[in-house]
C-alpha cells in the first residue's frame, strides 16, 4: 500500500516518464516557440515551463521528504540530462556540482570543524561561559550569542551549534534557567555569525560560486564582513533586549529529573512475576513479540541486580521484577492475563532506573541533521539492540510521545530519552550521528592545550592563505584537512564520518539546476514577472522585496536551495532596472541565512527544536520581528556600502 510519502515519489517518477515520452512530439513546437520578444525577454515556452514545474516539484519534495533530501538532490542532474532538449544542460554541466569549488570547500570545512571539536576548544570556551555568566539570564544570552556567532563566522555554524547544545542545556540546568530561553538565541547567533566571513556557512560559498558564474564576481574572504558585522550586532541587540523575552519557557527548570521533565511517571510501572504466572520460562523477547507495540520492558530487577537491554534472551523467573513502559490500561490487561502483581506503591524515579555501579544512566540523545536515524524509526535500524539501550520517551518540539515510540518516524531535532550503560554512552558520544546530553554531568573534559593551539592555528592559517590569495580557498581548506590528519588532530576514518553528505549531495544537485534556470531563460522570465508588479518602485525597495522574498522562501525550504533559485532571478531583475547586480546577490545571500521565523528553513533551528521543547509558533513569535528588522537594515546597509 502506498503511504503519503510514497504517493509523492510515484508522482515524481510519473512526471519524469511523461516528459520522456512526450519529448519527440514537442521538438517542433519548442523550436517554433523558442523566440525572444523585442525587449530580449524570452517568451514563455516549454523549457521555462519544465524548469518551473521541476522547481515546484522539488519544493514539494523538500518539504515532505518522501526520500532523503540528498537522494532527491542526486536525481536533479539525471532529470536535467533526460530533459536536456529543454533544460540546455550538458553532461559536464549536470556533473559540475561534484567538482565545484563550493562543494569541495564545504566538505573540507566539515573536517576542519571536527578537528577543532576533537581538541576540546569549544568545550573549553563553553566552560568559561558557565563561570562568567552565573545564573544571570541576560548575561547568558549575551555570552552564548556573542561567542557562538564569532566562532560560526570562521568555522561552519552547524557543527558549532551541535557542540554547544550540551553545554547550553547543562548551563541552564545548573543555573535554574529554562533551556528554552537559551537555545533559540544559540541557533540565531550561529546564523548571524555565519554572515561574517565567506567560510561561515555553505550558503556563502554557494552564493559566491553562482555570483562568479553569472557576473564574474566571487566573494573574497572578508568582502561582506562589514555588512555581516552590522547584521550580527543588530541581531544580538535584538536577542538580548526583545528576543529572549518573547521566548516561552517550554521546558521547566525546577524539575528534579528526566522522569518528571518528560512526564512519564504514569507510563512506568513495576510488576512482580507471581509464582504461578504462565510467563515463567518464557524469554522476554518472546513475550514482547506476542504482546505487540503498546508495551515495552525497560528493566529487569532480579536479586537486587538491575538488567537492561539487551533483555530479549533473559528467561523470566518467579519473583522477577519488571519495569514496564505502557499506559495503565495496558498494564492492567497484561497483569490480568499473565498472572503478575502490580506494585502501585513503587514510584519509578530516575534514581531507581540508574545504577552507579554498572554505569546505567538516563540520557538525552538529540538527532542532528546528518544522522542516519532521520526519517527512520527505532525499529527500522534495530537501534536498541545495536546500542544496548532502552527507549523511554521521544520529544518532538513541544510534544512528547510515550506510546508506540519504537515506530515513531524521527526528524532532526527530535530528542530520545534513553536508559543506557556507560560503554553505550561512550559509543554514542563518539558517533557524529548523535548529540548526547546527561543531566548533572560531572565528567571533566580532558582538554588538550597543544591540540587546541594546533587546530585553531590551522583554521586561521586557512583564512590567512585564502584572504591574501596565496592559495585558492578550496586548496587552502584541503591543505588544512591534510594538516589535521598529519598532526593527528583527526583520525583518517573520521574524515568520512565528519562530512554531512546530505549537504554535499544537495550542493551537487542544486548547482546544475542553477545552470538550467539561467540557460533556459527561466530566471529572466521570473524576474520580468516580478518587475511587472514592482518595477516602478525605487531600486532600494525592489532590493528589499527580493530580500524578503528570499527570507520567506528560506523559511520553507533549505537555505542552499533558495540561493540557487533566487540569485539568478535577482541578477536578471537588477539588469532590467539598471541596478548593481552584486548588491542583489548580497541581499539574496544574506536573506538565505535569515530564516528566523521557521524551524525547518535552517539546520541549526531544527537542531534546537527538540532540546528546547519549542512549538512552531515560537519561531514565528521570536523570529518574524527579526526578519522584518533585517529586511529594512540589510538593503539600507548594502546601498550605503556598495551602492545601487
UniProtKB/TrEMBL annotation:
Q: Which SUPFAM superfamilies match?
A: TrkA C-terminal domain-like (SSF116726)
Q: Which residues form the RCK C-terminal domain?
A: 256-340, 350-434
User: Which PANTHER family does its entry note?
Assistant: BASIC AMINO ACID ANTIPORTER YFCC-RELATED (PTHR43652)
Q: Which UniProt keywords apply?
A: Membrane, Repeat, Transmembrane, Transmembrane helix, Transport
Please tell me whether the keyword Repeat is annotated for this protein.
yes
What main location does UniProt list? membrane
Question: Known InterPro entries for this protein?
Answer: Cit_transptr-like_dom (IPR004680), DASS-Related_Transporters (IPR051679), Na/sul_symport_CS (IPR031312), RCK_C (IPR006037), RCK_C_sf (IPR036721)
GO cellular component terms, semicolon-separated: plasma membrane
Transmembrane regions listed in the UniProt entry: 45-64, 71-89, 95-112, 182-207, 227-247, 458-487, 499-518, 530-550, 556-574, 581-602, 622-642
Q: Where in the cell is it found?
A: Membrane
Protein known as: TrkA family protein
Single GO molecular function: monoatomic cation transmembrane transporter activity
Source organism per UniProt: Halanaerobium congolense
Give the way it sits in the membrane. Multi-pass membrane protein
One GO biological-process annotation of the entry reads: potassium ion transport
